[in-house]
Structure to design on (617 residues):
């Protein structure tokens, strides 16, 4: 059997003729943005011939500016974990706005079971519970955090799949509820001084390790498992999925649960990295997570896109953020540029779809 | 007696609120028989199909399929017991390719202990897809193209190949050629003839008089939610004009007169 063609009814198909994957477009955009910042580093008078990604001062062993590369990915890793879940939700033609506040609520709840009893020999000044909740093994706060996420996701999914509330409204409500839970949990007080084990979850480059390994896992799941196939099928044609015998309601609930559990895990990692949990954490995270997915080529109308795209979308946001700092432009410009890029990504996506049709 | 019939409905009725979409339908389908359902728009054809296939739940009445009284909770139950349906709105996922669509909802899998995360057996599904397309004579240049890139006819052929490639006790097609060109219509009709040769019974919902006379043994006419005629067209007693007058209500089958 030859590699490129097999017969079907006298006609052949050519595996090499598969269409240009949209991930390549995102990769191309990423490279273009990097080149622009590289060029600006040479052109702008106040930059003194610096390099954006390469090691121009001989500070590192490799040719790359390792410090910058690390920062680029570290600052998007935690939101990236959320984006992995949001991507799946968007592929079913849904949306999840509740992830940012869910990060905060989970950070509060998980860390309240991950506190250490003694700080420098004194009782933990931020202790929320009695000594029974102190110095617990680290799996307990993680399990509690993930269970809380699963619970919230199940509620989202139930309202959306069974009571047919539009996902935008259901998760907008949950957005407020979760922010409320985050404030209520400790009456607005921050929760601090976690155990060493808890600190280790998000220490150093750990968020990146979590982000990339979860990305690999969910890439494989979306591509090679029944769960993934049904997720795409529901987003592509929900009626067809239902008529084909897929239990659409159950599947949607599962997707929202997985998305919420990923957001909850992001909350655990974030609170660990910051060594504190505060009710205001994770502001705009839901929007940046959606932005990563959309820039990465996940279509808001459902059925299209991939986890690889989302990872690349996350990298685009990371590079832009880091690039603006690099050319010493203020955060306000960053927000404006990101907004413009999100809109262009959607315009490009729609243009591509229209061309196909 | 029950051996003789594949499908039998008694007093099958569906009301949507106050709307009587289907009223007291008594319908029978013999083994190996091909029957067409005709009628005006809104006459209850599609409603009838939806009650049999479990897409909707009937208001009252009984459905006897394959010798047993059945009460399908959903289309998957109907399919599991052997009813394959090509729906009027094509039940295909646009962003998936041909094997994905052929096996949608009944994927071949490995490592089933992984539950919802069990692995797809892409290789086996591709092989079976090839075989199914070959068997039905459907020509699709590249089965890894997504459905959205295909013509209406190719889509319909995929939908029908899906139905025909799984051995079923009953096949139902709801206006399978409504949107097709001449060539594509021919392909679909060939698949239907193949089913006839294989002795697989079929219910065909169609508006196309020529097609119906070419393909089926019997026509059942619906009007205003009720069956109004049962015409054995193989006898040669009926012409297209007769059927039209039943559809429009100019005539009513003798045995149905009292009900309407």
């Amino acid at each position: 059997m030859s590699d490129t063609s097999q017969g079907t009814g006298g006609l052949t198909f050519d595996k090499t003729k598969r269409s240009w994957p949209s991930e390549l477009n995102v990769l191309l955009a990423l490279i273009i943005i990097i080149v622009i910042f590289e060029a600006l580093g040479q052109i702008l008078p106040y930059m003194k011939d610096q390099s954006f990604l390469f090691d121009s001062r001989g500070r590192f062993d490799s040719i790359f500016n390792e410090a910058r590369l690390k920062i680029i990915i570290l600052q998007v890793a935690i939101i990236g974990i959320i984006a992995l879940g949001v991507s799946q939700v968007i592929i079913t033609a849904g949306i999840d706005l509740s992830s940012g506040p869910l990060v905060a609520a989970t950070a509060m709840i998980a860390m309240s079971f991950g506190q250490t009893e003694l700080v420098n020999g004194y009782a933990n000044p931020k202790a929320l519970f009695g000594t029974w909740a102190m110095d617990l093994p680290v799996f307990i706060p993680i399990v509690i955090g993930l269970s809380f996420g699963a619970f919230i996701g199940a509620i989202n999914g139930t309202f959306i799949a069974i009571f047919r509330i539009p996902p935008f409204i259901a998760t907008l409500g949950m957005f407020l509820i979760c922010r409320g839970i985050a404030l209520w949990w400790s009456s607005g007080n921050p929760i601090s001084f976690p155990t060493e084990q808890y600190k280790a979850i998000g220490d150093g480059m750990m968020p990146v390790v979590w982000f990339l390994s979860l990305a690999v896992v969910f890439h494989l799941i979306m591509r090679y498992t029944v769960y993934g196939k049904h997720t795409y099928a529901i987003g592509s044609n929900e009626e067809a999925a239902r008529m084909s015998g897929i239990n659409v309601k159950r599947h949607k609930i599962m997707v929202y649960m997985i998305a919420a559990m990923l957001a909850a895990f992001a909350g655990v990692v974030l609170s660990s990295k910051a060594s504190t949990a505060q009710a205001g954490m994770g502001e705009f995270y839901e929007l940046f997570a959606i932005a990563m997915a959309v820039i990465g080529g996940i279509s808001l109308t459902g059925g299209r896109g991939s986890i690889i795209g989302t990872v690349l979308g996350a990298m685009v946001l990371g590079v832009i953020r880091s690039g603006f700092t690099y050319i010493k432009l203020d955060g306000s410009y960053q927000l404006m540029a990101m907004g413009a890029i999100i809109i262009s990504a959607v315009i490009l996506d729609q243009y591509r779809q229209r061309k196909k049709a | 007696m029950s051996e003789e019939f594949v499908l039998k409905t008694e007093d099958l009725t569906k009301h949507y609120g106050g709307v009587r979409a289907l009223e007291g339908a008594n319908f029978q389908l013999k083994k190996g028989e091909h029957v067409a359902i005709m009628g005006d728009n809104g006459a209850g054809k599609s409603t009838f199909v939806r009650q049999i296939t479990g897409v909707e739940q009937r208001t009252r009445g009984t459905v006897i399929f394959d010798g047993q009284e059945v009460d399908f909770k959903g289309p998957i139950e109907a399919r599991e017991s052997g009813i394959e349906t090509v729906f009027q709105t094509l039940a295909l996922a646009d962003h998936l390719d041909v094997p994905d669509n052929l096996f949608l909802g009944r994927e071949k899998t490995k490592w089933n202990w992984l539950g919802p995360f069990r692995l797809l057996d892409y290789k086996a599904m591709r092989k079976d897809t090839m075989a199914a397309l070959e068997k039905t004579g459907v020509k699709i240049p590249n089965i890894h193209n997504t459905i959205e890139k295909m013509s209406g006819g190719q889509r319909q052929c995929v939908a029908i190949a899906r139905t025909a490639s799984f051995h079923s006790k009953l096949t139902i097609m709801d206006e399978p050629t409504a949107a097709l060109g001449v060539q594509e219509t021919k392909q679909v009709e060939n698949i239907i003839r193949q089913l006839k040769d294989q002795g697989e019974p079929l219910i065909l919902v169609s508006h196309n008089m020529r097609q119906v006379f070419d393909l089926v043994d019997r026509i059942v006419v619906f009007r205003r939610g009720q069956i109004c005629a049962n015409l054995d067209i193989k006898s040669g007693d009926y012409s297209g004009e007769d059927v039209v007058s039943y559809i429009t209500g100019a005539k009513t089958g003798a045995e149905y007169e009292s009900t309407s």
